[in-house]
Design goal:
seven-stranded parallel sheet; 366 residues; globular; alpha/beta; six-stranded parallel sheet
């Protein structure tokens, strides 16, 4: 049996469930999936046992609950965790089941994440990062395999521990790669992902106010959840103050399976990220979704995105809404030109899809 544990992702997370767990089940593995989430979604099937603990359980108590569930199962061969906070779980289980193979899936550069979101002053922030790294390091002796979701563009910090590392990007599944039929292409734009200040959402709204001066029919959908209530109010007020209520629509986050229908109704995807420690070290998952389903992509000129694409997207300078507006206008003007779209489809069809790297993941369980 394979055990997969997450304490902060939705149960049907695209990386954890849609790709990894579904691949394991398809490969004949029995899986115990333990989550900590506010969701009531149950994913249990014949081959999958899904147990969810609500957010009322602090992470430390959740770890105790998860370890109890694991240790009462028979023939547990692998344990995979998806958050740094769950490293103590590996220690507990490894002491009782020393032969279990443990996997630590690192979704993001945690130091960059902290540098981006912490409101502390620089010195205190860096001291906190050092403490975090020391705490992580003392638990890595219980890790047999590390998975990174992003290519090692800079030193990830894990190389010195001599633990095997494999990179498994958040590529799209091949079944979602769709070449749309030719039709009248309207300037319908979409942003999909978290709605937070570092994502460049305010600059995207400001850019749209410039775009609609030329392309009055242009529409923008913001699909996702706001990181904070205060930021939601700020964005909605900005849309109202710029008189963009008829051009910008906010769509609440929907289950993963419904995202594709929404994407296919649009023609241009926008990745408006600001330049931050996090965006300079992590590849946006939505890049591959947009390559698979949209006509054009407008993207912030950041190294992680440039790692995968070059001339098949419309680039703009991070943090510059005038540059963003020009890129959006260029993409609208070029909607009838399919060369960029066809190049992106070719890239995801042949290289950037989950089916290409799926066996690299499954090999860890053989």
């Amino acid at each position: 049996m394979v055990v997969v544990v997450s304490c902060s992702h939705y149960p049907d997370d695209e990386r954890i469930y849609q790709k990894q767990i579904c691949s394991l089940i398809k490969n004949g593995q029995r899986v115990l999936y333990i989550t900590r989430s506010s969701s009531n979604l149950s994913l249990s099937t014949k081959k999958l046992t899904h147990i969810n603990f609500g957010l009322k359980f602090p992470v430390k108590k959740f770890i105790v609950k998860a370890s109890d569930e694991i240790l009462k199962r028979e023939k547990v061969s692998h344990l995979q965790i998806h958050e740094t906070d769950l490293l103590p779980l590996l220690k507990i289980v490894k002491k009782i089941l020393p032969n279990i193979f443990t996997i630590y899936d690192v979704h993001e550069n945690m130091n960059a994440l902290y540098r981006t979101f912490s409101q502390r002053n620089l010195i205190i922030k860096e001291i906190a990062i050092i403490k975090r790294n020391l705490n992580e390091a003392k638990h890595l002796k219980f890790v047999d395999q590390i998975i990174l979701a992003n290519p090692i563009i800079d030193d990830s910090g894990y190389l010195k521990f001599k633990i095997p590392i494999i990179v498994l990007e958040n590529f799209v599944e091949k079944k979602y790669i769709i070449k749309k039929k030719d039709m009248h292409k309207k300037p319908n734009l979409i942003y999909h992902g978290h709605l937070g200040p570092e994502r460049g959402i305010e600059n995207l709204v400001r850019a749209m106010s410039i775009v609609v001066e030329t392309f009055y029919e242009a529409k923008l959908s913001l699909l996702g959840s706001f990181r904070t209530k205060s930021f939601e109010i700020k964005v909605k007020n900005l849309i109202k103050n710029l008189s963009l209520e008829k051009n910008i629509y906010i769509i609440e986050q929907v289950p993963y399976g419904l995202v594709w229908g929404i994407l296919l109704k649009n023609t241009i995807g926008v990745i408006p990220f600001d330049k931050t420690p996090l965006t300079e070290s992590c590849v946006p998952t939505k890049l591959f979704e947009m390559m698979a389903s949209l006509d054009h992509i407008v993207a912030s000129d950041l190294a992680p995105i440039r790692y995968f694409v070059d001339d098949s997207v419309f680039w703009f300078k991070p943090g510059d809404y005038n540059s963003l507006a020009r890129a959006i206008k260029s993409s609208i003007v070029s909607l009838k030109d399919d060369r960029k779209k066809n190049k992106n489809l070719n890239l995801v069809s042949k290289r950037y899809n989950w089916n290409v790297i799926e066996n690299n993941y499954l090999n860890l369980f053989r």
